[in-house]
Structure formats: structure tokens, C-alpha cells
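Support case: zinc ion complex. Customer-provided input:
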Amino acid sequence: MPVKNRFAELHDDVTAWRRDIHQHPEILFETHRTSALVAEKLREFGCDEVVEGIGRTGVVGVIKGNTDTAGKVIGLRADMDALPMTEVTGLPYASKTENAMHACGHDGHTAMLLGAAQYLAETRNFDGTAVVIFQPAEEGGGGGREMCEDGMMERFGIQEVYGMHNWPGMKTGEFAIRSGPFFAATDIFTVELTGLGGHAAKPHETIDTTVMASQVVLALQTIASRNADPIDRVVVSVTSFETSSKAFNVIPSGVTLKGTVRTMSPEMRDLAEKRIGEICTGIASTFGGTAVLDYTRNYPVMDNHAEQTAFAAEVAKSVSGACEEAPLVMGGEDFAFMLEARPGAYILMGNGDSAMVHNPEYNFNDEAIPAGCSWWAGIVEQRMPAG
Ligand SMILES: [Zn+2]
Ligand SMILES: [Zn+2]
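Agent response - structure generated as follows:
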């Protein structure tokens, strides 16, 4: 089964939906227009049930197969949200909203899952139930977590769940996957360093937080180089360094540092959090100041389940002939919460030679649509075969 013929027919429709969503990007949980559009389409396709407002602006559609002898239920998940950035593609369907852009291809994900839903509702050539999940706030807001906390898995009886993301640099419509830890846990931290401000020409009368904070930034890099087992993986990045002074000649009384931590195991996550605290308070006290750390655990490691990963790879092979071993990704993915709740797998699909996701030049590749839709349909038809 290469790309399903029906998806060649639907290619123009799905492309038009994708470009419409692209032109109207919405951030985090504010996916009101997109959610309404998704719900309207799902009703139009004849889904057996369409529920809005799960995880605030999430939408779920239920499609029953022609038969249901074993009570199987599979969830397919797409994300709907955009990023707070300015598009520079110059495309005729570029974002019409200021400081909002579909720079991660969630417009494509949503449109492809809609295409698959239309096909599945038309054909129903499977034994069980398909649940299509459209989540808001993948980009840091935890929309997937909120849908799970809203009882989505139990309410719809979802037994397995699958996700997909486009991937620039991989050939259009080709797939890659890996079993086990795949995307990193993504934590954020803020450090408030306090000293004593004063005249820049009289440093001996101050406790200089700029010097203190500079030492902290450098020392945080020793978590990866000196504390972590070299075989393990950890990223500690300080991304914001802000002093309380705006003047050339005033030593600031305080500095605020912000950053992110990426890890691939719970042990490394614990270690990084512990060491950040020790380094900040230790260095601050060396200089006679104080440090207050606010550490927030955001997305956990996204861990693909072995059996479902092997199955997802088989479906990918049936669509595009091959499925590569994907590399580890130190980015985060909200689908991690769904994979904590249910067994399942997450796959990457090639977006061709495009700019990387989160780049203002990025655009989802519409040529990948038939392959993406076919993979979704294949997950349902091959996991719950008819007759
Ligand atoms: Zn993204
Ligand atoms: Zn994304």
C-alpha cells in the first residue's frame, strides 16, 4: 500500500485547509478559530461524536469502524497551535496575524489528520474505533497534559495513541522513528541573584551581582561537562541575563538569569535540578550575596513504546517503502503526556529541504500531505483490520 488513492484526490482540499489555517495562526490555548474549523469539518465528515472544549480548546472526534468485535480504540493526535513570532516567508497565504506564525507545521498536522478523518469516516474499513485528537498549546503550554487531565483517555476509552511531526531535512513524505526515549524533558528555571548595588567607580563598596552571575553562568556548564556521565545527555542553557541597572555607572543590586534544561532520563533530570541549586547558592554565598532558584518541570521525556513503535514503522514502510532510525531530539514534545497515559508511538515525517521548524522562513510542505494522511489511515486500518 503506497499512498492511498483517496488522498491523491483529497490533496487539494487538505492543502486548502492547511493554507487557511496557516493564514490564521493562533497561540497556545487561544486556538478558537482553528478549533471551531476542526469541529465543523469533523461534523461535516459524519463523525459519530465531536466534542469541543477538552483541555480548554481541544477537540475530539470519534469514528466507529464498520465492525467492533474486539472493542479496540486507537487515538490519533495532531497539534493546532502556532508560535509567537513574525513570518518572513512572503507566501501569498502568509500569516495575517501580527506576532503569530505556524512555524512548526502544526497547520499541516491539523490538516492531515482532518484528511485522514474524512477518509476514515467515508470508508470505516476497520474493526474498532478511531479517536482523532486535536490539541492546543503544544508549544510550551501543555495542552496535551490538560486534555489528559480532563479525562480524555478514559472518556473515549483510548487504548493506544499515535502522534506525528513533520521534520525539515528529511526527504518529503519519508518517515523516521525510534523506540524508547526520543524527545527530551524540558524544564525551565529562573535565578534571582541579590547583592549590593552602588557606584561603578567604587566596586569595593558593593556586592557586584554582574560578576556573581557571570560566574554562575560559567559554572552551570560544568553540570554537563563534570557532573553528568559523559555517556548520558544533558543541556543547560542560560538564555536571559538581566541586571537591575540600566546605567553605565551603576553596579546592579540584582541579576535575573533564565534558562532551560534538557535531559533524557529521570536521574539526569534530578541531578541537573539539584546541581543548579547548589551552584547558584554556593557561588552567591562566596560573593556575599544570595540566590533564589525557581525550577519548573515542564514536559517529561517523550518515551516511545517498543511494540507500538515497531508497528508504526511497519505502517510507514507500507506508505513510503522505508522507515529510518530517527536521532534523539533535545527539543520537547507535549505528546509525552499522552505516551505516559497510554502506550503508543510518535513518528517524524520528512518536510524536504525546508528551513528548520521555529525559523521565520519555515513552511510546511504540502507535498507531504498524501503520505501523512496515508500513515494515519494505515495506523487505524492495520491495527484494527476489518473482517
Ligand atoms: Zn515547535
Ligand atoms: Zn511542533
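The chain has a mean pLDDT of 97.

Case will auto-close in a few days if no follow-up is received.
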